[in-house]
Amino acid sequence: KSFISLKLLVLLESMDNILKQLxxxxxxxxxxxxxxxxxxxKKPPKHLDKLMVELHDKEFEKTNCLQCAxxxxxxxxxLNDQDIARISKHLKLKDQKFIEQYLEVGEDHEFSFKxxxxxxxxxxxxxxxxxxxxxxxxxxxxxxxRRFQQIETVTIANTAICPATYNIMEALKNALPxxxxxxxxxxREKFRKGGG
Length: 196
Fold this sequence. Notes:
Largest sheet: 3 strands, antiparallel
Strand content: under 5%
Radius of gyration: 21 Å
Structural class: mainly alpha
Strand order of the largest sheet: 1-3-2
């Protein structure tokens, strides 16, 4: 039992280090990622949706969100009317009472949780409303959604929050044909002057 606890402690310390480094790593890749999205929007590969599902699934075979939960600790998801009704019912609250107690209205008139970290995040990184959590939480980090090329802003922001998103973006760059590389086009051969 103590071996399992020690192993878990090492994993959590490792995740803490990853999360400390992630914002800088994401910032260093931001321009490269923006250029990639520009190319993807201009001419998305026919297989992009399928590729994103594959990259997402492969990453989440090795990524355990419960070791991280950084999204729950640092961001507030948007909630739609169905989310509010579902969670209110689960908590046995009237919709309006749930809104007053837990939500705020943003600039774009969207609802989000008032508090960060999420009030439903438990100390073990489990979600106390997991089965009825908001759609935005269920779909996070959105890397397997259709028409991935259309969610540049949220994806680039998520590379600084979610280690899996960062890894998926790096894997995407490696998986795409060369015309989507940072420099674009087929790499040129270099020749020295004077032959040789």
